[in-house]
Design goal:
Layout lengths: L8 E3 L10 E6 L9 H15 L7 E5 L3 H13 L3 E6 L4 H9 L3 E5 L4 H15 L4 E2 L7 H18 L6 E5 L4 H13 L4 E7 L28 E5 L1 H15 L5 H15 L6 E6 L21
Parallel strand pairs: 2-10, 3-4, 3-6, 4-5, 7-8, 7-10, 8-9
Antiparallel strand pairs: 1-2
Helix pairs in contact: 1-2, 1-5, 2-3, 5-6, 7-8
């Protein structure tokens, strides 16, 4: 748990366009289980232990699109707690395999219902037997966004020497976006926070929510972002290939969606601006996906 956080900030200098802002990305795949979700999982489990809601004999249960589940599974194994996870059956093979290798039990839900279906199923199971389960409820637990307020946002401010002018990031639970941007705006109210989301309810950007067509997380404030940026699935796929081949960064699909939106933003800003985004996880969780070998290598 002590290894979670304090991740590097990497300048994406090779894909950045000349004349635009500086573009940086927080390498959250450097967390011990390989994603940004380690931060929230750690905070929610710590809160459970401190309040007594999580104690020996209980099973950690929650819904996930993949990354938070892997974080729960890792921490559960390290701390001696069983873990039961609900997720859509179309989550990547690699994500499901990693959870199982950590010893977690997986319940696969209808892929057509997306993360909402997994959420409702986990909630029903947890509420049916509260003595058996510790239910962090990542979509409504304030410890989720607070982990980024105290960690990610503070780190970005320090790592950029207070020069960050724009923060742009996708949303699943919205914890990373809400917590990080709140901290940054407390440091400098002029910082702009741009929310990234898929351009359609039907998309292939795992872990990302199209907020207009889904159950909104309890702590998501739709009036908070200074703007929104939509990214298509194919654009995210193309950017994942570019990051690997041009920057040497093997990142996942939601990471690539963030970079695609951040690159568009940076190109339209003055050169003194500093744009920061999030590399949510590693591309190793999507090795079996066919998009790696498709499309034009040089376009995004």
């Amino acid at each position: 748990m002590d290894l979670i956080g304090n991740t590097p900030l990497i300048e994406l200098s090779r894909i950045s366009r000349k004349g635009g802002a500086l573009l940086f990305a927080k390498a959250e795949f450097c967390n011990p289980s390989g994603s940004v979700k380690d931060r929230a999982a750690k905070a929610m489990i710590q809160e459970g232990l401190e309040t007594g809601k999580l104690k020996p004999g209980k099973t950690i249960i929650d819904a996930t699109s993949g990354n938070t589940g892997i974080s729960y599974a890792m921490l559960g194994a390290a701390m001696g707690f069983p873990v039961r996870l609900y997720l859509p059956s179309n989550a990547s093979v690699e994500r499901k395999s990693i959870m199982r290798h950590y010893g977690a039990e997986i319940v696969e839900t209808n892929p057509m219902e997306g993360s909402d279906g997994a959420y409702l199923a986990a909630k029903q199971e947890a509420e049916a037997d509260p003595e058996a389960y510790f239910y962090p409820d990542q979509y409504n637990n304030k410890a989720n966004w607070q982990a980024h307020y105290h960690g990610t946002g503070a780190e970005i401010w320090e790592q950029t020497g207070g020069r960050v002018s724009h923060f742009i990031c996708g949303m699943g639970t919205s914890g990373t976006f809400m917590g990080t941007s709140r901290r940054l705006k407390e440091c400098n109210l002029a910082i702009k926070a741009i929310a990234v989301q898929p351009d359609s309810p039907f998309h292939g950007i795992e872990g990302a929510k199209h907020m207009a067509s889904t159950i909104k997380p309890g702590f998501y404030d739709e009036s908070w972002p200074d703007g929104f940026s939509e990214v298509g699935t194919e654009s995210a796929y193309a950017m994942a290939r570019r990051l690997a081949r041009e920057e040497g960064i093997y990142a996942g699909i939601s990471s690539a969606a963030n970079v695609s939106a951040a690159l568009r933003l940076a190109a339209a800003l003055p050169s003194q601006s500093v744009v920061v985004t999030i590399l949510c996880d590693t591309g190793a969780r999507y090795v079996s996906d066919e998009f790696w070998d498709a499309g034009n290598r040089g376009q995004a």
